[in-house]
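yo, phospholipase D is done. seq:
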Amino acid sequence: MQGRRKGARAKRLVVWLLVLLLLAWGTMALWQTIKPLPDTVGKAWPLRTAEDIRFLSDRTWYDARGQRHLDQQIFDEVLSMIAQARQLVVMDMFLFNSLSGDNPSVSRHLADQLSQALIDARQQHPQLRVVVISDPLNTFYGGVMPEHFRKLQDSGIEVLFTDLDRLRASNPLWSGLWHLGLDRLGNDPEGGWLPNIFKGPDVTLRSYLAMLNFRANHRKTLVVDQNDTWSALITSANPHDGSSRHGNVALRISGNLALDVLASEATVAGWGGVDIELPAEPVAASGDGAQVQLVTESAIRDASLALIADAESGDRLDMAAFYLAHRPLIDALKQAVERGVQIRVLLDPNREAFGFAKGGLPNQPVATELHDVGIAVRWCLTAGEQCHSKVLHLVRANGGNKVILGSANMTRRNLDDYNLETSVLLKAPSDEPVMRQISAWFEQRWESSPERRTSRRWRPAERSGWFENWRYRVMEATGLSTF
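structure:
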């Protein structure tokens, strides 16, 4: 009898412990989704006068024989900007490594080229300060230390990996448990015993557990001094060997906007204990020419929704997206069509990412949904590379155009303050050179020809069913996805 009572008490204790664990798990998951964010996360900076603004792109296309052709500008410009710097270089890049997974589409060893350019700049100009910010994914969350980062540190370059715990949880079902103590386990770059899915050195179990939080510093920016001013580059491109054939875009801008980018990055550097002294406060925009505005995280979402809402009958919206899954953004596009706005959407087919095969989510079911309401959809032609640009362009009938481009994919994770992101809102007349360049870039991607094949139309045979539609929606809403 006494033994039965002890057994019953033990069972009740186990039940209560499980209940307490579930309560703690749920409470932590909730807190990680609503906790306060640092001040500069999700910020729209003031409008600035655009100075020396240039549009850059990396383009891939196929000729009539199926041969791939490349025209790459972005990292040539990055290397040039670094080479002329004399005081300060601050670079924040999401993927900065030489790994390529199972992807054979490597055209340039970007990680080594960029690392060597930074090292050379430091050696030639010892007074030059170089700060490199990147995402912990490059070290598989502390499980490896790539050799190029060691070389950067040995040359006197400040390298820091972003403290992602400052951000909210994009996958709260896992992060609630992670922050109950698993996050304090640390990691060991020399203790790997599990195969690395990115085909690098073996890693620990802790690396995979950390990865399941699915959040990142996804920014791609560069700020340098240039003579008596400052220049910034905001892009969708990564210095990642496996991404070296991807299609991407960038804006290179001199003047006050570059100081906004520097201030934004100084905050992230500060999370890692690196202090960056900022120059004098820039002045706001004036005049009728091109204007630019730095937007980060949820401010990119707000600016995108406002841009779409601003479109009227007779206007046109052109969108190029690697991932399109953000429900408010999709709904805004559908409402714009009802107002008589012409919309063209160019999508990556989502067949590959990080060198791994994917099932077409989220873009395949989203393309079906857009087509059904009268939105023109085309697929980028890809063979191992990605259509990685993120561009939203409002072409006004009266000529006052707007463009948003940068790092942010059009998903909940990228637009709702779960990742760090940086984009630029550009406002200018349609006859401004930079606007003409952006329009020409989109037209060349959209209007494929036999001699220069870049895209193809959506076909009715590609219609997604209800399962794919609801599957991507659940993944998008819960964060149980990699997009």
